[in-house]
Design brief:
By secondary structure, this protein is mainly α. It has 3 domains: 16-106, Fumarase C, Chain B, domain 1 (Orthogonal Bundle), CATH 1.10.275.10; 111-359, Fumarase C, Chain A, domain 2; 368-426, Fumarase/aspartase (C-terminal domain) (Ribonucleotide Reductase Protein R1, domain 1). 61% of the residues lie in helices and 4% in strands. Strand 1 (151-156) and strand 2 form a beta hairpin.
């Protein structure tokens, strides 16, 4: 078994079961590049400040570069018997360059080392996720533009409510994902401070240059408090919250796609490349990708709860509980990235049945509000107009007719204000076009929304 970095104080080896329980290398090994990058920056600073000699600094740099190169090429495999990725890198470095490698940990603790590794890793994952979100938003905007005029029923309580266009409906999701993008970017900004140099909790007596390491690693500055530098995981919670919302929005979108794919709606049809079949029913075409996305949202929500629960009772500074941060936040990113990667092409290749959408919009009296607005335009107070149209709808339901099918004589049974022009007022295309209030469903405004959304990218 590899020697522990903390060996010396203890008279016996850690119990095997305790060692397995304590070790984190099986999940923190993915931070090998960040660990080596952070170590190279730390070594360069130690050399520049004279804490170690230039010769030792150069040897450490060369050794770390060799380890990274060999890991990338596959020539070197990570030893999973090590406690963590930090132990593996340091011991491999010492194996290659001798006792000079032991100087690397001068003025550094694993507490600030893991904190900087995690921030570097999550910063890259945040940027990756942001690009996938941008791609999805662009796909939504392209689809919305193609169907800016396609009329469909809008729903409240899953009941047909008012006419909208598919473009308008899709753009609602574009704005959700734009907010998600903003949350990721905001969290990234707050995360982008460097904890390296905080030491175990109290800083160090060595004359280190924290600004140098922060700058070389692309941070905006150094964490201003060493206690907070090693124990802060707010950025994990913020990112987990943003990812949970992304997955929640994808889940809501998936639910609608699942409904729209059903024979009861038949508004859309997913491409065969993003559908699956049944092992027993040969006719089935299932929206499993959307269903999986809906299900996986629970993982992201659970990870957020895990992180909040982990933090809620911790005293300062570092506690081993914080090791639980990685599996949760890594899984949230993995889940969101996987979902976003498959969701965009699924949406892009989705076939829209505008005929079925228009047919559904013709039923359910979704132009009843427009009929009431028509009476308001004739001078009637809205509440009175509302009552009249409600009575008219109840009558037409009993007669098995729609507002379009009712005769003018039937209209006039309920109000003398109805005239021949009521039919133009309740025509679905006009109902949609006339909705010109900011943010409304008129195709003209939908196209403006699309332009604005794309400009924000």
């Amino acid at each position: 078994m590899n020697e522990k970095l903390w060996a010396g104080r203890f008279s016996k080896a850690l119990d095997d079961s305790a060692n397995d329980y304590n070790a984190s290398i099986r999940f923190d090994q993915r931070m090998y590049k960040e660990d080596i990058t952070g170590s190279m920056a730390h070594a360069a600073m130690l050399s520049a400040t004279g804490i170690i000699s230039a010769e030792d600094g150069n040897a450490i740099q060369a050794g770390l570069e060799g380890i990274l190169s060999d890991l990338e090429s596959g020539a070197l495999q990570i030893d999973l018997s090590c406690e963590d990725i930090h132990t593996f890198v340091e011991q491999e470095l010492t194996r290659r360059i001798g006792d000079t490698g032991k100087r690397l940990h001068t003025a550094r603790s694993r507490n600030d080392q893991v904190a900087v590794d995690l921030r570097l890793n999550l910063r890259a994952r945040t940027d990756e996720t942001a690009e996938l979100l941008k791609r999805l938003i662009r796909v939504i905007c392209e689809k919305a533009l193609a169907y800016a005029d396609a009329i469909m029923p809008g729903y409240t309580h899953l009941q047909r409510a008012q006419p909208v266009t598919l473009g308008h409906h899709l753009m609602a999701y574009a704005w959700m994902f734009l907010r998600d993008l903003g949350r990721l970017q905001d969290a990234r900004g707050r995360m982008n401070l460097c904890p390296l140099g905080s030491g175990a909790l109290a800083g160090t007596t060595f004359p280190i240059d924290r600004d140098m390491t922060a700058k070389s690693l692309g941070f905006d500055g150094a964490c201003p408090n060493s206690l907070d530098g090693v124990s802060d995981r707010d950025f994990c919670v913020e990112l987990a919250g943003a990812l949970a919302l992304i997955m929640t929005h994808l889940s809501r979108f998936s639910e609608e796609i699942i409904l729209w794919c059903s024979w009861e709606f038949k508004f859309v049809e997913l491409d065969d490349a993003f559908s699956t079949g049944s092992s027993i029913m040969p006719q089935k075409k299932n929206p499993d990708i959307a269903e999986l996305t809906r299900g996986k949202a629970g993982r992201a929500i659970g990870n957020l709860v895990t992180l909040l629960t982990m933090l809620k009772g911790l005293p300062l500074a570092y506690n081993k509980d914080l090791q639980e941060d990685k599996e949760a936040i890594f899984d949230s990113f993995d889940t969101a990235v996987m979902a976003l990667t498959v969701f965009s092409p699924m949406l892009e290749t989705m076939r829209v049945r505008t005929d079925n959408m228009r047919a559904a919009a013709a039923k359910g009296f979704i132009n009843a509000t427009d009929c009431a607005d028509y009476l308001c335009a004739k001078g009637l107070p809205f509440r009175s107009a509302y009552k009249i149209v409600g009575e008219l709808v109840a009558y037409l339901i009993a007669e098995g007719k729609t507002l379009e099918e009712a005769s003018l004589e039937e209209y006039r049974r309920f109000s003398d204000l109805f005239a021949q022009d009521v039919y133009e007022a309740i025509r679905l295309e006009n109902c949609v076009k006339k909705r010109l209030s900011k943010g409304a469903t008129s195709p003209v405004l939908v196209k403006q929304q699309i332009e604005e959304a794309l400009s924000r990218l």
